[in-house]
Amino acid sequence: MAYRAGVVGASGYTGAELLRLLAGHPDVEVVHVTAAANAGAAVERLYPSLAAAYPGRTYEEYAPGDLAGLDVVFLALPHGESQRLVPDLVDRVGHVVDLGADFRLPAPAYERWYGSPHQATDLLDAFAFGLPELFRDEVNRSNHVAAPGCYPTAATLALAPLLAAGLVEPTGIVVNAMSGVSGRGRGLSTPSLFSEADGTVTPYGLLNHRHTAEIELALDHVWAGDHAVQVLFTPHLVPMTRGILATCYARPAVDGLDTATLLARYREHYAAEPFVIVLDDPPTTKATFASNAAHVTVRFDPRTGTVLALGAIDNLVKGASGQAVQGANLVLGLPETAGLSSVGVQP
Amino acid sequence: MAYRAGVVGASGYTGAELLRLLAGHPDVEVVHVTAAANAGAAVERLYPSLAAAYPGRTYEEYAPGDLAGLDVVFLALPHGESQRLVPDLVDRVGHVVDLGADFRLPAPAYERWYGSPHQATDLLDAFAFGLPELFRDEVNRSNHVAAPGCYPTAATLALAPLLAAGLVEPTGIVVNAMSGVSGRGRGLSTPSLFSEADGTVTPYGLLNHRHTAEIELALDHVWAGDHAVQVLFTPHLVPMTRGILATCYARPAVDGLDTATLLARYREHYAAEPFVIVLDDPPTTKATFASNAAHVTVRFDPRTGTVLALGAIDNLVKGASGQAVQGANLVLGLPETAGLSSVGVQP
Amino acid sequence: MAYRAGVVGASGYTGAELLRLLAGHPDVEVVHVTAAANAGAAVERLYPSLAAAYPGRTYEEYAPGDLAGLDVVFLALPHGESQRLVPDLVDRVGHVVDLGADFRLPAPAYERWYGSPHQATDLLDAFAFGLPELFRDEVNRSNHVAAPGCYPTAATLALAPLLAAGLVEPTGIVVNAMSGVSGRGRGLSTPSLFSEADGTVTPYGLLNHRHTAEIELALDHVWAGDHAVQVLFTPHLVPMTRGILATCYARPAVDGLDTATLLARYREHYAAEPFVIVLDDPPTTKATFASNAAHVTVRFDPRTGTVLALGAIDNLVKGASGQAVQGANLVLGLPETAGLSSVGVQP
Amino acid sequence: MAYRAGVVGASGYTGAELLRLLAGHPDVEVVHVTAAANAGAAVERLYPSLAAAYPGRTYEEYAPGDLAGLDVVFLALPHGESQRLVPDLVDRVGHVVDLGADFRLPAPAYERWYGSPHQATDLLDAFAFGLPELFRDEVNRSNHVAAPGCYPTAATLALAPLLAAGLVEPTGIVVNAMSGVSGRGRGLSTPSLFSEADGTVTPYGLLNHRHTAEIELALDHVWAGDHAVQVLFTPHLVPMTRGILATCYARPAVDGLDTATLLARYREHYAAEPFVIVLDDPPTTKATFASNAAHVTVRFDPRTGTVLALGAIDNLVKGASGQAVQGANLVLGLPETAGLSSVGVQP
């Protein structure tokens, strides 16, 4: 018998991607979908791709009572909305999986990076940081999951083996990343227009993008040393719909590094992970398209004394909805890979 | 127990797409993959997207003996090669599914449109035209399948209900179509370069594109009247990787047409088809991305007295590899939808 | 000494393109630019491409008095706004060149296609339909210019030689066209989002797109016969920023047509036109990118008895701002090609 | 009277861009164009964009005698070919402007990065490194010009003010760059295919891309200190035709840096440069499209103690053909900006 799921904010891109993934999930059935401005609309009018899976289904207005008793509720909402909804929701449903930023950071870090106090601090501990490859124990112990952001997922999976083994310095790390435009969501804004984003690369969020906090949090979690990890993160918008590539630079903390040894260590580190694939070649985002896979590789440059680590994901899957399903599988006690694929759509 | 399959020409785009689809097929296992220039290469070097599904697998040189005893062999080869290989292959394997043009047309039509005599005319009758929605009986009766081209699939599914019901004239039909660049394959040619195809629309094959013959053949099959169907087909290359849209124009053969009635008739015509979805809105290629779905709609314009029919597919799935799997399912006696999805990846 | 120009609505795409073109115009100087929501913003913040040409320039609020005495004022406004502004503006400035739809059609046609009565019918005669290749005499005789739409420009230049010579029937014409997304302007709307338009083809405006009226009007102008021209027009959005391709189908009105003769007739028809280039090959939009050129070709299909005519332009130049400058040159008595190029940016 | 120019290798992308730019140059006339495989073809068949400027012109086979007496010859050839041609050409023509890599580096650096000895070492001193913003004196003193690569141009212009003023350490510099696909040229190769490059980011040349040598050479030229500049350069292919963005990281060499001061210093440093524009906002490649402009900005991050410098150009103009024209203008004694624009095509 399938677990019964709700998707709140199902008309946005991560919401629609949840509907796509859950349509193929063997043990979860979507029984309720909500939207704000699109309430009343048919799912298939916004996403004809889903017509076959959700025939006649319409978006409902959000009402917590409608979700009562569901086994799992996914929240795919703009920043700041989950913390308003969760207090009233958390006791009515089995598990909450939040795809937004609201339950990822401790309260002080949240306030520093988001500029306002968190509205539900007492519930922060009920959510695990939902990057299973680094926080699997925490997710297994938790009722609720805060799926991490797309950039943090790509950057952290690329860098984690280095910090876990103490091979690089925790400071002076540079994460230079590129994202497809769907990372900006389905909301209307000038930079999201085709004619603005096509044929150009747009750096943004220089020095202070909020995902910096998540990258540092996740890497601190694997880093055993005294100093807090410090990262300079620079995102760029590139003219593609999906995909994140993180190109990361770090300084060695030990002598005698070489690329072959690092690659071997990465393969060992990720040997048991179903969704992390270590490549000899530089990863490309297309190879992960529509899949929950993360592709990573690593290099040591003896000339400049720098470690280079690269990671690629589909921002809407491993960077959002796929990772959310992966977290849901864990808290529901299902196989972690249920409903998820590590095979990309290429070309 | 799974049926054992081989893919010949598995390093091209339709071959790789077969590998992707068959990796998720519950009843078919790919046990042999061949390539020409790429023989010896690892599948995951060309398609890291497939690394998780085919770890360590390399492309073999083609040798018919290696395929002996397989239940089904897919041929994903350039035009003209299948007719050379099939005579030596056809008695060694259970079923052949050819994705090329070699076994789609009767010998005279082949010679007229391809400019040279067919080399294996005695085997033409052993292959059914593998468009199940129009030729399901023929496919079920055949050992082998010739999967139709991408343009004919989109155009035929858009127009078939009109001709089947005698609602439009069989002549004067215009098919104006657009294709993503993957339709040109992975071979090297100047028009396939990113910098040539990006940011532009390129009409080609004016008046005499070979797919004209397949469109006419398939529509003649559903058309009951005396006159042979005649189509003017104009393909265009558009700057996207996947997708075919066919915008078709036809002249009414009866009085009193209107859009609502036509849409109702389309829904009735395709009611039992798992992969054809009739939309009220104009279909878009993205909604079918990576799926085996065909989306169609229809309009009647009382002002100019014209019927407008539109069809969208993913050229690599319903237009090639997905349709090939659909045909293979039929000849193997499997459920027609096994391993195939009608849910697209959007956005 | 340069003519003094104003651009009203200069923060949209056609406005910005006017600024780009006029920055290189030898005889026109832009002395005033206005915007609505963007009033007060620096031109170079919205269009850093223009930083070198308009350093420190900011958008002003629209006030007719600010434009008084200018030699020419370009209106690059959303549909319906020009007819509100022009009555108060027309006596204050030398010439008005409107890039919108408000002054292109006779009052009855306007009301039929736009669904509401025109608000300044008495001024309609003061504007010439600004497609110089077909209406040069009218433009030369007029004070003001209504530059035609992008689709009508491409379709009309592709078809005009056929109708002017009476070679095709005036009815049963099909115009199947594709446009880059900039044709939708810089305004916010879901279909204009990158993630909606990328990787897909979107048909829209089926049966009743308003540009139908302009295509019929312009072709009627060259057609000498009794029957009014009738066109079925189907536009599609394709994933590129700029460019229009019109693929047009018509039925012969005479016997004995062939492609070579038609091409020769096209070359003769356009021999004196600086911006129309007749190609043997099918035209592509990229070849016209950022230029005021229109590329056309023609074919006769003896098999189906159809004439095929194709035309490509840059929708923001020959389809909007370049054509507006061309019209301004005429009414100002300047060389028609001043400030305009027929060389495209390729690749 | 115009100077007479030849373009050798005029069927490639940089060659075609030279033809586009020189078609609008007031003082240079292209009198001879050559191509290898495309000899005999009409320019307008390969580039219909150039039909209006070069009607009836065909590519000639290369023969040095045909170029004798020309004022300037541009070489737009694959790596390694210029050093074979130049010895026989250099005394027959006024000036050679080479767009390839052959005459950019001193012989030892050339051999180290290109893996084979230079074939015309005695001529290396006759060529100046053609980045006028850093080497204007050298270009003015030279007969011949070696126009630098696209990546070095973007990275060097972004970083030069920092090193010229001794504000950053010369080692530990990271250049993370992205290029449009036209940077790979018009030659056939799998990574240049649309279906390979569309919808994905591809890192390549990890650790050892040859442009590293040029970046270090150019920055050493402005750096006054003892240590040689050392750069780790990581290029990425992004799905657009034109454009280079370089995102550069450096460590401060002095205390008390802040963003406002750095921006002011950049503006002062480039105050007299017609083609370098210092922006407050992050630069985007689209704003430089089809222009010879370079857009740069700079930031200081007090949190991590890092200087961030960004530069954007059109790789085919300021990164190749425009820069070549700029260098030609200098050696011909023309105004440096003749035939060049700093206004981009946006959107």
| Rounded mean pLDDT score of chain A | 97
State the share of residues found in helices of chain A, binned by percent.
25-40%
- Give the helices and strands of chain A as they follow along the chain: EHEHHEHEHEHEHEHEHEEHEEEH
What's the tally of helices of chain A? Answer: 11
What does this structure look like?
The structure is a homotetramer of 347-residue chains. Chain A is an alpha/beta fold. Chain A has two domains: 3-148 and 318-332, 3-Layer(aba) Sandwich (Rossmann fold); 151-315, Dihydrodipicolinate Reductase, domain 2 (2-Layer Sandwich). Helices cover 30% and strands 20% of the residues of chain A. Chain A has a seven-stranded mixed sheet. In chain A, helix 4 (82-89) links the parallel strand 3 and strand 4. Chains in contact: A-B, A-C, A-D, B-C, B-D, C-D. The interface between A and D is large, with 47 and 47 residues.
Short recap of the structure:
The structure is a homotetramer of 347-residue chains. Chain A has 347 residues and is of the alpha/beta class.
Write the layout of secondary structure elements.
4 copies of one chain form a homotetramer.
Chain A: E1 3-8, H1 13-23, E2 28-34, H2 43-46, H3 64-67, E3 72-75, H4 82-89, E4 95-98, H5 107-114, E5 127-129, H6 132-141, E6 144-146, H7 150-164, E7 173-179, H8 194-197, E8 202-203, H9 211-222, E9 231-237, E10 244-250, H10 259-269, E11 276-278, E12 294-301, E13 306-313, H11 317-332
Parallel strand pairs in A: 1-2, 1-3, 3-4, 4-6, 5-6, 7-9, 11-12
Antiparallel strand pairs in A: 7-10, 8-9, 10-13, 12-13
Helix pairs in contact in A: 1-11, 6-11, 7-9
